[in-house]
Amino acid sequence: MATEYLEHKLSLLPARPGCYLMKDINSKIIYVGKAKNLKNRVRSYFKSSHEGKTERLVSEIRDFETIITSNDKEAFLLEITLIQKHQPYYNIKLKRGTGYPYIKITNERDPKLEITGQIKKDGAYYFGPYPNVWAASNTLNFLQKVYPLRRCQGHMGRPCLYYHMGQCLGACFQEVPEEKYNKQIEKIKKFLGGNVGEIKSQLETRMEKASDNLEFERAGELRDQIKYIETTVEKQKIISNDSTPRDIFNYYVEKGWISIQIFFIRQARLMKREKRVFACINSPEEELSTFILQFYNRRNQVMPKEILVPSNLDKDTLSEVLNVPFRTPQRGQKKDLMDMAADNSKLVLQEKFRLMELDNRQTYGAQKQIFEALGLPYGHVIESFDHSHIQGTNPVSAMVQFLDGRPEKSNYRKYKIKGEVEHQSGADEAANTREVVYRRYSRVLKEEGNLPDLILMDGGIIELRAVMDVLQNELGIHIPVAGMVKDNHHNTSHLIFGEEGEIVPLDRKSQGFYLLQRIQDEVHRFAITFQRKTRSKNALSSRLDGIQGVGPKTRNKLLKKFGSVKKMKDASVEELTALGISKTTAQTIKITLASTDFHKKYSKG
């Protein structure tokens, strides 16, 4: 049921295309959507019944704003921009990079083959994506043996090793005609396009000839190349009559969740599959459309020549935005692939449901208990801090983040305490707290990031008041703060809240209390681990400082490259000199580290 304030805003909505931004009680944007008709779409959130995550979203909405666009295409593009900028909790958010490897033929006078994960508009040819680096590496090695281009740096004045091995056309010592490169590149493009029968036949003929000439080693090499084609290229079943690079999207919806499958068809074969499952806030067609636009807006994403989607999507608008034809197959192999993607979507979602009930009780439900015990409206993000030091030395702090009861490790942060000179002791918990909290949230404000809904501080009333003072008086923000107090056995005892540190009633046998323990244990583990690494690195730095010829620059090079005494000891003199260190200094480092270990081992004998 909408409030009087929201009812008034709903009555003013225009019946035009655009985007809408839903906000919670703290004016944080929690959902971004698009609509052909803003009036109908936004009103539907408050005038219709919902379930699951949509129901939770509506319960948190306290305000909204709209942005009108001229047409659906502009709404599509604006929605993606707003999602990337605000990272709303209820929107599906894809990582910016795909992480998939591609094979690249460089665009230069003497082109070469290489594996890359970064796609650039540099005129080069890109083939992929490949399922993994192993698959791409094997294909690259095969092509370098059968269709060599350039493998050396070029213009060396002498033939390189690869030229003698038949894997380089000789740009190292001669000018290779462009026609010769172009001929090889056409063969490579044919092979990567799925036409492998011709090269397999050629290899078999050459293998038989080598065998007849008693060149058994060469025949063995050719046999291995044929085996590669059979085991890695021909192993995958041909599933299409043409080699057009295409991606296939289909979905399945149930109980307020949507499961999406993406098939990558390359070389007439299914090269890779992706799957995603997330809450379906809007209609399935709009969720899939938004997903597709985000999917191709990522870095290193080579567009296919054709995209197949279900018939209920707005294919014209998607084609206009991405400049790639969108089609819905009606029969044949492509229709079978669409059906297979839908069947896989259903299977994945049903597996998800089997795990969700227990998982939600232990995560979302547990976090909800903590907020209820504190008398706060439900919040999705909890951030927790802890400090670690050894008798006041090497002080560090760590922050962990939990999203709906689950650790978000990509958002963990580590801090070296900078203010220890001022307060003379790394064990000054209040000073450490003030420093790290100020550093964390001043940066969030500067970068216009999202603030957490609750801060849990490992400590008592002193740390609690220090956090509240920094937030309110120095940063001018209001975030609820609670302290996690431990007992004499260093186990989680209870929560305290407010200026006076009142004990919060939270059942010790509840899922909420178990989550509190997990958060406190996790932030402590993270801080201790970081402190040990810092101490180890400082100790290594001190040992290096005592070696003749090792100054600050050399020390930093060694630490960055090796990071530990063992790796430094195992390194050869050549590896050390490769860092720009003189051979004499490198030998001194090796001898000093070896003699130090010898002294440690036998000094007590």
UniProtKB/TrEMBL annotation:
<dbReference type="GO" id="GO:0003677">
    <property type="term" value="F:DNA binding"/>
</dbReference>
<dbReference type="GO" id="GO:0009380">
    <property type="term" value="C:excinuclease repair complex"/>
</dbReference>
<keyword id="KW-0963">Cytoplasm</keyword>
<dbReference type="InterPro" id="IPR001943">
    <property type="entry name" value="UVR_dom"/>
</dbReference>
<dbReference type="InterPro" id="IPR010994">
    <property type="entry name" value="RuvA_2-like"/>
</dbReference>
<dbReference type="Pfam" id="PF08459">
    <property type="entry name" value="UvrC_RNaseH_dom"/>
</dbReference>
<dbReference type="InterPro" id="IPR036876">
    <property type="entry name" value="UVR_dom_sf"/>
</dbReference>
<comment type="subunit">
    <text>Interacts with UvrB in an incision complex.</text>
</comment>
<dbReference type="Pfam" id="PF02151">
    <property type="entry name" value="UVR"/>
</dbReference>
<dbReference type="InterPro" id="IPR038476">
    <property type="entry name" value="UvrC_RNase_H_dom_sf"/>
</dbReference>
<comment type="similarity">
    <text>Belongs to the UvrC family.</text>
</comment>
<dbReference type="InterPro" id="IPR035901">
    <property type="entry name" value="GIY-YIG_endonuc_sf"/>
</dbReference>
<dbReference type="InterPro" id="IPR001162">
    <property type="entry name" value="UvrC_RNase_H_dom"/>
</dbReference>
<dbReference type="InterPro" id="IPR047296">
    <property type="entry name" value="GIY-YIG_UvrC_Cho"/>
</dbReference>
<keyword id="KW-0742">SOS response</keyword>
<dbReference type="GO" id="GO:0006289">
    <property type="term" value="P:nucleotide-excision repair"/>
</dbReference>
<keyword id="KW-0228">DNA excision</keyword>
<keyword id="KW-0227">DNA damage</keyword>
<dbReference type="Pfam" id="PF14520">
    <property type="entry name" value="HHH_5"/>
</dbReference>
<dbReference type="InterPro" id="IPR050066">
    <property type="entry name" value="UvrABC_protein_C"/>
</dbReference>
<feature type="domain" description="UVR">
    <location>
        <begin position="197"/>
        <end position="232"/>
    </location>
</feature>
<protein>
    <recommendedName>
        <fullName>UvrABC system protein C</fullName>
    </recommendedName>
</protein>
<dbReference type="GO" id="GO:0009381">
    <property type="term" value="F:excinuclease ABC activity"/>
</dbReference>
<dbReference type="InterPro" id="IPR000305">
    <property type="entry name" value="GIY-YIG_endonuc"/>
</dbReference>
<dbReference type="GO" id="GO:0005737">
    <property type="term" value="C:cytoplasm"/>
</dbReference>
<feature type="domain" description="UvrC family homology region profile">
    <location>
        <begin position="248"/>
        <end position="471"/>
    </location>
</feature>
<dbReference type="Pfam" id="PF22920">
    <property type="entry name" value="UvrC_RNaseH"/>
</dbReference>
<feature type="domain" description="GIY-YIG">
    <location>
        <begin position="15"/>
        <end position="92"/>
    </location>
</feature>
<keyword id="KW-0267">Excision nuclease</keyword>
<comment type="function">
    <text>The UvrABC repair system catalyzes the recognition and processing of DNA lesions. UvrC both incises the 5' and 3' sides of the lesion. The N-terminal half is responsible for the 3' incision and the C-terminal half is responsible for the 5' incision.</text>
</comment>
<dbReference type="InterPro" id="IPR004791">
    <property type="entry name" value="UvrC"/>
</dbReference>
<dbReference type="Pfam" id="PF01541">
    <property type="entry name" value="GIY-YIG"/>
</dbReference>
<dbReference type="GO" id="GO:0009432">
    <property type="term" value="P:SOS response"/>
</dbReference>
<keyword id="KW-0234">DNA repair</keyword>
